[in-house]
Amino acid sequence: MAEMIIDSHTHIINQREPVWGWGPHFNFQSLIAMMDKGYDVMGEIKTVEKAIVMTGLGLTSVEHKTILEAHQYALLAIEKHKKRLYMAPVLNPRAWGAEDLDILNDWQKNNNLCMLKLHPSMHNYYLPSYNPYPNESSKKLIYPVFEKARELGVPLMMHQGETPYAMPAQVAPIAEAFPDVPIVVAHSGANNIPALANDAILLARTHDNIFLGTSWVQAPELNQMYHALGAEKIIFESDCSPVSQGHALRFVTNLHLPPPLGVGASREEVYKMIGGNIAGLCGIPTE
Question: Can you spell out the DSSP letters for 193-231?
Answer without folding.
Answer: -TTHHHHHHHHHHH-TTEEEE-TT--HHHHHHHHHHH-G
